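User: Show me a protein chain along with its predicted structure.
Assistant: Here is one chain, sequence first, then structure tokens.
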Amino acid sequence: MQRTANTGLQYRSLEIARVNKTRVLIGEVVDQGNHEEGEFSNFVRSTMESAINSEENLELVTAHEFALDKTNTGKAFFLSPKIHAPDYSGGKLFIKVEIVIFSYPGQTLRSVVALTVLQEDVGEPSDEVEYPLIRLALKNLMTKISVNIDNF
């Protein structure tokens, strides 16, 4: 990347903005339901990535990127998503989604945030019903994490 006077200023402003962001890494998805492993994991990760990218104070990084960045002076967290088995009972669907938050790279447990979502008037078990609820829960949890990130 060439630096002209203008791009140099833009580059520095991006670096300043980046310093104020908390870096987050996403761990392996724990699925206690009966979903297809690869497809479901990709769905959960992409939903979390999208939610992280929409938060101004969070920056998604990989472990490799984190290791290569020698300026790791800010906070970083490792997020471990867990999707509990769906509970179909009484015509309702309950799904509990939790994200375990660890410091990074130290991997010290910092918090666990969880949300149980409900859909009424549900018949047979179906991914078409479960996926939107899981997406909603993950997005709400990522917003909660973003708002409270300084408390972890």
